[in-house]
């Protein structure tokens, strides 16, 4: 089996991406640990309490959506469960201008027309 040769730049790009991911994970772990020390282990939206193994379902949400804004007092954070966190971000995406497509430009939801021609058939019956 012949091995594929990759361009030399691919290895460097993969290393850069891996390093960026490691750095992001370390940053996230650092501010998550701080947030868990500062705030009660309760979701800020649904008020569910978390402890033990379930604590991993509690995430840090950046109120201004800037993950580099991590003040020591935690004023830009709120703890949210994974479900409320996902909901918060999906609302942000849906609320952005231009994300909604005007009705006249939308693709039809259904392409099959099961009752097409029904009026004509009923007229023939009568």
Polypeptide structure, described:
It is a single chain. This protein has 126 residues and is mostly helical. The chain has a domain at 26-95. Helices cover 42% and strands 8% of the residues. It has helices spanning 8-38, 82-95, 118-125; strands spanning 58-62, 77-81. A two-stranded antiparallel ribbon has the order 1-2. It is elongated. It starts with 7 loop residues before the first helix and ends with a helix. The model has no long low-confidence stretch (mean pLDDT 82).
Number of E strands: 2
- Average per-residue pLDDT, rounded, comes to 82
- % residues in beta strands: 5-15%
Adjacency order of strands in the biggest sheet: 1-2
Q: Overall 3D geometry? A: elongated
Order of helices and strands: HEEHH
Q: Would you tell me the structural class of the helices and strands?
A: mainly alpha
* Helical proportion, percent range: 40-55%
- Determine Rg (CA atoms, Å): 25 Å
Low-confidence residue ranges: none
Largest sheet properties: 2 strands, antiparallel
End-to-end gap: 74 Å
Number of helix segments? 3
Describe the SSE topology.
Elements: H1 8-38, E1 58-62, E2 77-81, H2 82-95, H3 118-125
Antiparallel strand pairs: 1-2
Features:
126 residues, mainly alpha, two-stranded antiparallel sheet, 3 helices, 42% helix, elongated
């Amino acid at each position: 089996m012949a091995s594929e040769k990759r361009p030399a730049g691919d290895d460097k790009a993969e290393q850069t991406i891996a390093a960026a991911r490691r750095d992001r994970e370390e940053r996230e772990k650092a501010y998550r640990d701080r947030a868990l020390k500062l705030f009660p282990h309760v979701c800020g939206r649904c008020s569910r309490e978390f402890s033990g193994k379930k604590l991993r379902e509690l995430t840090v949400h950046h109120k201004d959506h800037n993950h580099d804004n991590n003040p020591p007092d935690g004023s830009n954070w709120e703890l949210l469960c994974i479900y409320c966190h996902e909901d918060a971000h999906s609302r942000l995406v849906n609320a952005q201008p231009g994300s909604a497509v005007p009705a006249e430009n939308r693709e039809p939801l259904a392409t099959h027309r099961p009752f097409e021609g029904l009026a004509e058939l009923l007229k023939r019956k009568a």
